Amino acid sequence: MRSLLTLVVLAFAFNSSAQDVEFKAANFKDNKDAFQTALAAYEKGTEHWILGNEQVFMVKSPKLHYWKALAEFEKAYKFNPKSAELNFKMGVCYAHSSYKEKCIKYIYAAYELNPLCHHFMKYYMGYACQLDGKYDEAIKHFKAFEEEYRKADEFNKFTTQRLKECASAKTLTAAPIRAWVDFVPELSSAQDDYAPSVTIDGEEIIFTSNRPNGHTPDEVGGYDADIYTATMVNGVWQTPKALRGTVNTTKDDISSNLSYNGTKMLYSVLNDAGNYDIYEAFLKGADWTGSVNFSTNINLRSNEIYASYDFDDKLIYYAKDNDGSGGYDIFVSAPVVKRTREYSMPTRVSDVSTGFNDGPVYLHPDGKTMFFASEGFNSMGGYDIFMAQKKGGLWQAPINLGYPINTAYDDYFFAATANGKFAYISSNRPGGKGGFDIYKVTFWGPEKKPAYATQDYLLASIAKPIQDPELVGEVKVAATINLTVFKGITIDQLTKKPVEAVIEITDNTSGKVIETFTTNSATGKFLISLQAGGNYGIAVKADGYLFHSENFDIPAGSDYNMVNKTIELKNIKCGSKIALRNVFFDTGKSTIRPESYPELDRLVKLMNDVPTLKIELSGHTDNTGSATSNQTLSQSRAQAVVDYLAGKGIAKTRMVAKGYGSDRPVASNDSAEGRQENRRTEFEITCN
Length: 688
What we know:
Helices cover 24% and strands 30% of the residues. The protein is α+β, with helices and mostly antiparallel strands.
């Protein structure tokens, strides 16, 4: 009985293997010419396939080797789709591409035709099962490979990592985080679309794509990467367009990071030596121009790519390989000469770097949160997105953002809006148009207890309604957002046309200017993020216009807030008036407080810049108290400002102090907000 069973098993194994049709002349006696053509393609493809494998073993990009192999393998496959080894090699090519899902079909077919067709068959069968979500089967194949192929010492770390990934995937998929991940078809194509970066209000995006661009395709029909941009209108992304200006070239141009206000960006360009360097470009009107090599200390003989601005623009984080001979790690550099964008030599950020590829990296504007991609740590497979938070100047242990943000596929890049509710990622998971596509992450926020003991459903995602699950442990992504976003446009008060203006942000407590930038000349748009725990003066200046000022006092611990404002700038002509919003007095007195000095010094500069200017300084109060006391207080405050300006060298003959008390309100005195508006210091141009 035992021998009969053995014969049955052997016969089954023989029949299964017999389905494998090898590339041998004996199998194609009736079609010799076609066989020779197919065999030549198969052998040529194998040459490229071997070169691709060598790169992968060194944790380097296989570049075009696998695609060149596939171009030949496709010819051979049309002639003989029953070759187990051919199916295996095609599966390996797709496994190391951005079209990973396609590898499952070929690896499964190879295993069915002949599970012994290649000594790496069980490893890639495990990988195909991993991509297919069959984690227990994947673990079985990986362990079998690990046991049987101990000679692959240099490959052990890959097998060990795959086993860890499957264990992580089982744990993380069992407890999905509170988020939707929705495919964004408006931004995606059948080619690779990746590296999204958004402004902090989430209404402008840039990303990279190798979709057809009119350039000459490479030897396998692919196009170089260009940078694209799109604008959100009424919640819908408009059709992406290639970035205007001089940024895109006929080489690979890869977006890295928009500055939070959207006026400059970091990107990488493929140089003549075949490595990527980091560049910076600036938005001038509708065009991106003025590209500069970011720093000679950063751009060395290795690949430097996927750079990110720090929240206060003092540091730059980026991915760098080991002089072209290994995987990417995350590095940081500090400014040496900030004005010329010269930075220090790179320092490896060991807390967020592994023996696998690490990066891209994104620094959240909250100043304490880093998001980065890695093939290491407890990835579910390929690149996963992780979060690390800075405490005491050190980056803490990274946390996997969890499923469904991360999958067994490559999920990388992370660009968040300032409010922490939305983010954009790139992924080659199934369900897109092909290759890497753009996906939107929507965070649900803290879990709420249902009012009744019934199933509680949240709002439907784009795809389908999702039941609110109970979570063992929730990943809180940028849970506390202590930012105020101040956005808007600068326009001419009379013509309503955009005005290019310089915006200067001052810490009123220290009197130091902490940031200066220019609004867009074509649109007048601006975007500023202000950290909680500060009192800020914001001055808006443009040639030929009176400057405009705003004051933001943001207490420590304040929640996220967004202010959207149209600033109408006034021409410098007789009769023009402007309120000095950042001039402060002690309560009930005319003593100027020190935080007023930056505002008054800007007025001094204006008076010096326009020597013919004569002004009336006027003080105004609300209607609280008697008319007499209000008149006296407003007059003394106006005179205090005149005295300050005179002390700075402005001739008193050019200034008149006038107190109007509560006679000229600009808002209703029936509310606290209105009374605050009415308590002001103004100046009016009386002669120019």
